[in-house]
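Blinded run. Sample ID left blank on purpose so nobody reads anything into the name before looking at the predicted structure. Input follows.
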Amino acid sequence: MQREQRIEISQAGLQLAIQEIKDDMFDTPACDYTVAKLLSHCGRFNEAEQLIDTMLLRWGSSPDVVALVEKGYANIDAMSVPIATPSKSAALA
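Blinded prediction complete.
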């Protein structure tokens, strides 16, 4: 399985991407999940977690929302694991 990498994006670019997502998906639980996933990919884990935290309050606890919340937390956990970098000894070998 290929590990997804975090991406770097400017604040303005991130806001533009979030607005595009909201324009395309409207105001839905799936939209919140997608924005949280984007934030995770950009290394903004606190913002992503805050958005996921509010989903149950905002959308209720239907099975679909609960599944998206669980998926969102799993995504944050997977993305927040530090990306391994080659050690100096490996680079010298």
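Unblinding after everyone has recorded impressions. Helices lie at 11-25, 29-41, 45-59, 63-79, 88-92.
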